[in-house]
């Protein structure tokens, strides 16, 4: 059971603009978008950080990326491009401790990672 703000979104305890959901993951628009398109892809099982991903959960990460790519295709910006980011722990800028993939798009994004 995911016990973060994202868990509350998964359980429909707080509202979110959900754009995709399947048995394994959910995707919703970021409340403070950093680009014209900013969607978070979140597994439904509790995994606090990328460090906590187990070998037997590796497929789940692939499913998150596939869901993001399919969303990009469905929205028509797969070819023009987008960025996928996973922040890990304090120095990585992680603020919600449930593993999630950021999908950023909607025009040219600034280069660099710092
Ligand atoms: P992190 O910094 O952990 O990689 O990313 C967490 C993201 O979750 C941030 O971009 C933040 O804006 C977003 N966020 C935090 N709380 C909420 C919320 O209640 N609803 C939505 N939709 N996004 C949230």
UniProtKB/TrEMBL annotation:
Pfam families assigned to the protein according to its UniProt record, in alphabetical order: HIT (PF01230)
Domain (HIT): residue spans on this chain: 5-114
Xref: InterPro entries: Histidine_triad_CS (IPR019808), Histidine_triad_HIT (IPR001310), HIT-like (IPR011146), HIT-like_sf (IPR036265)
Alphabetized PANTHER family for the sequence: HISTIDINE TRIAD HIT PROTEIN
The protein's name: Histidine triad nucleotide-binding protein
Source organism (scientific name): Tahibacter amnicola
């Amino acid at each position: 059971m995911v016990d973060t703000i994202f868990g509350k979104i998964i359980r429909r305890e707080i509202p979110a603009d959900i754009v995709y959901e399947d048995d394994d993951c959910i995707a919703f628009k970021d409340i403070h978008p950093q680009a014209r398109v900013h969607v978070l892809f979140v597994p439904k099982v509790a995994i606090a950080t990328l460090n906590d991903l187990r070998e037997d959960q590796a497929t789940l990460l692939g499913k998150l990326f596939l869901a993001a790519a399919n969303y990009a295709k469905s929205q028509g910006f797969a070819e023009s491009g987008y960025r996928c980011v996973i922040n890990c722990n304090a120095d990585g800028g992680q603020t919600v401790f449930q593993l999630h993939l950021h999908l950023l798009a909607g025009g040219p994004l600034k280069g660099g990672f710092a």
